[in-house]
Design brief:
The complex is a heterodimer of chains A (91) and B (150).
Chain A (H helix, E strand, L loop, with lengths): L1 H19 L11 H4 L1 H14 L4 H9 L1 H22 L5
Chain B lengths: L2 H4 L1 H23 L8 H19 L1 H7 L2 H24 L16 H31 L12
Classes of the chains: A mainly alpha (91), B mainly alpha (150).
Chain lengths: 91, 150
Protein backbone atom coordinates (compact mmCIF):
# COMPACT_ATOMS: atom_id res chain seq x y z
CA UNK A 1 0.00 0.00 0.00
CA UNK A 2 2.82 2.40 0.82
CA UNK A 3 4.52 1.53 -2.46
CA UNK A 4 1.32 2.31 -4.34
CA UNK A 5 0.98 5.64 -2.55
CA UNK A 6 4.59 6.55 -3.33
CA UNK A 7 4.00 5.54 -6.96
CA UNK A 8 0.93 7.80 -7.22
CA UNK A 9 2.77 10.72 -5.62
CA UNK A 10 5.79 10.36 -7.92
CA UNK A 11 3.62 10.09 -11.05
CA UNK A 12 1.54 13.13 -10.05
CA UNK A 13 4.66 15.15 -9.25
CA UNK A 14 6.23 14.22 -12.58
CA UNK A 15 3.06 15.26 -14.45
CA UNK A 16 2.99 18.60 -12.64
CA UNK A 17 6.65 19.29 -13.40
CA UNK A 18 6.07 18.35 -17.06
CA UNK A 19 3.05 20.67 -17.24
CA UNK A 20 5.03 23.43 -15.54
CA UNK A 21 7.40 23.59 -18.51
CA UNK A 22 4.63 25.19 -20.58
CA UNK A 23 4.05 28.11 -18.19
CA UNK A 24 5.11 31.49 -19.58
CA UNK A 25 8.34 32.88 -18.14
CA UNK A 26 8.14 35.16 -15.10
CA UNK A 27 7.37 38.69 -16.23
CA UNK A 28 6.97 37.62 -19.87
CA UNK A 29 5.36 40.55 -21.69
CA UNK A 30 3.99 38.29 -24.44
CA UNK A 31 2.12 35.92 -22.13
CA UNK A 32 -1.67 35.65 -22.78
CA UNK A 33 -2.59 36.88 -19.30
CA UNK A 34 -0.53 40.05 -19.74
CA UNK A 35 -2.02 40.71 -23.16
CA UNK A 36 -5.59 40.56 -21.84
CA UNK A 37 -7.29 44.00 -21.82
CA UNK A 38 -8.35 43.71 -18.16
CA UNK A 39 -4.72 43.35 -17.08
CA UNK A 40 -3.85 46.72 -18.64
CA UNK A 41 -6.88 48.29 -16.98
CA UNK A 42 -5.95 47.01 -13.50
CA UNK A 43 -2.30 48.00 -13.84
CA UNK A 44 -3.23 51.53 -14.89
CA UNK A 45 -6.24 52.26 -12.67
CA UNK A 46 -6.15 50.10 -9.53
CA UNK A 47 -4.06 52.58 -7.49
CA UNK A 48 -6.40 55.52 -8.11
CA UNK A 49 -9.57 53.48 -7.70
CA UNK A 50 -8.71 51.42 -4.62
CA UNK A 51 -5.83 53.30 -2.98
CA UNK A 52 -3.66 50.23 -2.35
CA UNK A 53 -0.32 49.68 -4.03
CA UNK A 54 -0.67 45.89 -4.09
CA UNK A 55 -2.72 45.01 -7.18
CA UNK A 56 -3.45 41.53 -5.85
CA UNK A 57 -5.05 42.99 -2.71
CA UNK A 58 -6.93 45.56 -4.81
CA UNK A 59 -8.43 42.74 -6.85
CA UNK A 60 -9.09 40.50 -3.86
CA UNK A 61 -10.74 43.01 -1.55
CA UNK A 62 -12.10 45.66 -3.92
CA UNK A 63 -12.91 44.49 -7.44
CA UNK A 64 -14.05 41.05 -6.33
CA UNK A 65 -14.75 41.80 -2.69
CA UNK A 66 -18.07 39.98 -2.91
CA UNK A 67 -16.26 36.79 -3.88
CA UNK A 68 -13.83 37.15 -0.97
CA UNK A 69 -16.78 37.60 1.40
CA UNK A 70 -18.05 34.27 0.08
CA UNK A 71 -14.65 32.66 0.64
CA UNK A 72 -14.62 33.86 4.24
CA UNK A 73 -18.14 32.50 4.68
CA UNK A 74 -16.98 29.13 3.30
CA UNK A 75 -14.15 28.97 5.84
CA UNK A 76 -16.55 30.00 8.62
CA UNK A 77 -19.07 27.35 7.55
CA UNK A 78 -16.41 24.64 7.40
CA UNK A 79 -15.22 25.54 10.89
CA UNK A 80 -18.75 25.52 12.29
CA UNK A 81 -19.48 22.15 10.63
CA UNK A 82 -16.38 20.62 12.24
CA UNK A 83 -17.36 22.12 15.62
CA UNK A 84 -20.88 20.67 15.35
CA UNK A 85 -19.65 17.21 14.33
CA UNK A 86 -16.49 16.73 16.37
CA UNK A 87 -16.47 19.05 19.39
CA UNK A 88 -16.48 16.97 22.55
CA UNK A 89 -19.10 17.84 25.10
CA UNK A 90 -17.88 19.33 28.37
CA UNK A 91 -17.31 16.49 30.80
CA UNK B 1 3.46 13.86 27.76
CA UNK B 2 5.58 12.57 24.94
CA UNK B 3 9.36 12.81 24.91
CA UNK B 4 9.28 15.78 22.56
CA UNK B 5 7.07 17.71 24.96
CA UNK B 6 9.48 17.05 27.84
CA UNK B 7 12.49 18.48 26.01
CA UNK B 8 13.69 21.65 27.75
CA UNK B 9 15.19 22.98 24.52
CA UNK B 10 11.95 22.70 22.57
CA UNK B 11 9.82 24.17 25.37
CA UNK B 12 12.18 27.14 25.75
CA UNK B 13 12.44 27.80 22.02
CA UNK B 14 8.67 27.63 21.60
CA UNK B 15 8.08 29.97 24.53
CA UNK B 16 10.51 32.49 23.03
CA UNK B 17 9.38 32.27 19.39
CA UNK B 18 5.57 32.22 19.77
CA UNK B 19 5.25 36.00 20.46
CA UNK B 20 7.43 36.78 17.45
CA UNK B 21 5.35 34.50 15.21
CA UNK B 22 2.22 36.30 16.39
CA UNK B 23 3.83 39.69 15.75
CA UNK B 24 4.82 38.55 12.27
CA UNK B 25 1.23 37.43 11.64
CA UNK B 26 -0.10 40.88 12.58
CA UNK B 27 2.51 42.42 10.27
CA UNK B 28 1.41 40.19 7.38
CA UNK B 29 -2.25 41.10 7.92
CA UNK B 30 -1.61 44.85 8.14
CA UNK B 31 0.91 44.82 5.29
CA UNK B 32 -1.56 43.23 2.88
CA UNK B 33 -2.45 46.54 1.25
CA UNK B 34 1.09 47.54 0.30
CA UNK B 35 2.97 44.30 -0.24
CA UNK B 36 2.73 40.53 -0.15
CA UNK B 37 0.37 39.37 2.56
CA UNK B 38 -3.25 39.58 3.55
CA UNK B 39 -5.90 38.30 5.88
CA UNK B 40 -5.83 34.65 4.87
CA UNK B 41 -2.06 34.27 5.16
CA UNK B 42 -1.72 36.28 8.36
CA UNK B 43 -4.61 34.45 10.00
CA UNK B 44 -3.04 31.09 9.22
CA UNK B 45 0.31 32.22 10.67
CA UNK B 46 -1.37 33.46 13.86
CA UNK B 47 -3.32 30.22 14.17
CA UNK B 48 -0.13 28.20 13.62
CA UNK B 49 1.54 30.04 16.52
CA UNK B 50 -1.24 29.02 18.94
CA UNK B 51 -1.24 25.48 17.51
CA UNK B 52 2.54 25.22 18.05
CA UNK B 53 2.06 26.35 21.64
CA UNK B 54 -0.71 23.80 22.21
CA UNK B 55 1.34 20.99 20.64
CA UNK B 56 4.25 21.52 23.02
CA UNK B 57 2.52 22.58 26.25
CA UNK B 58 -0.56 20.38 25.88
CA UNK B 59 -4.12 20.88 24.70
CA UNK B 60 -5.38 21.95 28.13
CA UNK B 61 -2.72 24.66 28.34
CA UNK B 62 -3.51 25.78 24.80
CA UNK B 63 -7.22 26.05 25.56
CA UNK B 64 -6.39 28.51 28.33
CA UNK B 65 -5.06 30.82 25.58
CA UNK B 66 -7.98 30.20 23.22
CA UNK B 67 -11.05 28.70 24.85
CA UNK B 68 -13.80 26.82 23.00
CA UNK B 69 -16.26 29.65 23.47
CA UNK B 70 -13.76 32.31 22.36
CA UNK B 71 -12.95 30.76 19.00
CA UNK B 72 -16.64 30.39 18.15
CA UNK B 73 -17.13 34.08 18.95
CA UNK B 74 -14.04 35.16 17.00
CA UNK B 75 -14.95 33.10 13.92
CA UNK B 76 -18.29 34.85 13.62
CA UNK B 77 -16.88 38.27 14.59
CA UNK B 78 -14.52 38.29 11.62
CA UNK B 79 -17.30 37.50 9.16
CA UNK B 80 -19.53 40.15 10.76
CA UNK B 81 -16.74 42.78 10.42
CA UNK B 82 -16.51 42.01 6.71
CA UNK B 83 -20.26 42.00 6.07
CA UNK B 84 -20.81 45.12 8.20
CA UNK B 85 -18.21 46.98 6.14
CA UNK B 86 -20.16 46.07 3.03
CA UNK B 87 -23.46 47.11 4.56
CA UNK B 88 -21.98 50.43 5.75
CA UNK B 89 -21.24 51.24 2.11
CA UNK B 90 -24.93 50.66 1.30
CA UNK B 91 -25.99 52.94 4.17
CA UNK B 92 -23.85 55.76 2.76
CA UNK B 93 -25.50 55.42 -0.62
CA UNK B 94 -23.05 53.20 -2.49
CA UNK B 95 -23.28 49.61 -3.65
CA UNK B 96 -22.40 46.63 -1.47
CA UNK B 97 -18.64 46.81 -0.70
CA UNK B 98 -18.22 50.01 -2.73
CA UNK B 99 -15.71 51.44 -0.25
CA UNK B 100 -15.32 54.85 -1.88
CA UNK B 101 -18.95 55.71 -1.02
CA UNK B 102 -18.15 56.07 2.71
CA UNK B 103 -17.39 59.77 3.42
CA UNK B 104 -14.80 59.28 6.17
CA UNK B 105 -11.98 61.16 4.44
CA UNK B 106 -12.02 63.66 1.56
CA UNK B 107 -10.11 61.30 -0.74
CA UNK B 108 -12.23 58.25 -1.77
CA UNK B 109 -9.13 56.19 -2.58
CA UNK B 110 -7.83 56.79 0.96
CA UNK B 111 -11.13 55.58 2.46
CA UNK B 112 -10.96 52.51 0.26
CA UNK B 113 -7.44 51.77 1.54
CA UNK B 114 -8.44 51.82 5.20
CA UNK B 115 -11.63 49.85 4.64
CA UNK B 116 -9.63 47.20 2.76
CA UNK B 117 -7.39 46.98 5.84
CA UNK B 118 -10.50 46.55 8.01
CA UNK B 119 -11.80 43.81 5.74
CA UNK B 120 -8.42 42.04 5.86
CA UNK B 121 -8.53 42.14 9.67
CA UNK B 122 -11.97 40.52 9.56
CA UNK B 123 -10.72 37.76 7.26
CA UNK B 124 -7.71 37.20 9.51
CA UNK B 125 -9.83 36.86 12.67
CA UNK B 126 -12.12 34.29 11.05
CA UNK B 127 -9.25 32.27 9.59
CA UNK B 128 -7.25 32.13 12.84
CA UNK B 129 -10.26 31.11 14.91
CA UNK B 130 -11.25 28.36 12.46
CA UNK B 131 -7.64 27.08 12.25
CA UNK B 132 -7.36 26.80 16.01
CA UNK B 133 -10.78 25.22 16.51
CA UNK B 134 -10.03 22.64 13.79
CA UNK B 135 -6.82 21.68 15.59
CA UNK B 136 -8.46 21.42 19.00
CA UNK B 137 -11.41 19.39 17.71
CA UNK B 138 -9.32 16.90 15.72
CA UNK B 139 -6.58 16.39 18.35
CA UNK B 140 -6.99 13.27 20.50
CA UNK B 141 -8.00 13.70 24.14
CA UNK B 142 -5.04 13.90 26.49
CA UNK B 143 -4.11 10.51 27.86
CA UNK B 144 -2.92 11.47 31.32
CA UNK B 145 -4.60 14.34 33.14
CA UNK B 146 -1.51 15.83 34.77
CA UNK B 147 -2.82 19.33 35.35
CA UNK B 148 -5.29 19.82 38.22
CA UNK B 149 -7.64 21.90 36.05
CA UNK B 150 -9.03 19.60 33.38
Amino acid sequence: MKTLALFVVVITGAMLIYAGQDLPAFGDINSPSYQAPMTQYFIENSLEESGVTNIVTALLANYRGYDTLGETAVIFTAGMAVILLLRRRET
Amino acid sequence: MSRIQESVIIRTVVRITVPFIQLFALYVIMHGASGPGGGFQGGVIFGAAIILYAMIFGIAEGKKKMSDALDKILASTGLVIYAATGLACIIFGGMFLQYSAVPLLPDPAEVSKYLIDLVEIGIGITVLAVMISLFFDISPPESEPEGAEE
